[in-house]
Amino acid sequence: MKMTPEQFRNEHLYETTMMHLKGMLDQGLITAEEYRAFETKFREKYKPISDGLFCEIDLLCVQNRA
Question: Which domain holds residue 38?
Answer without folding.
Answer: 5-64
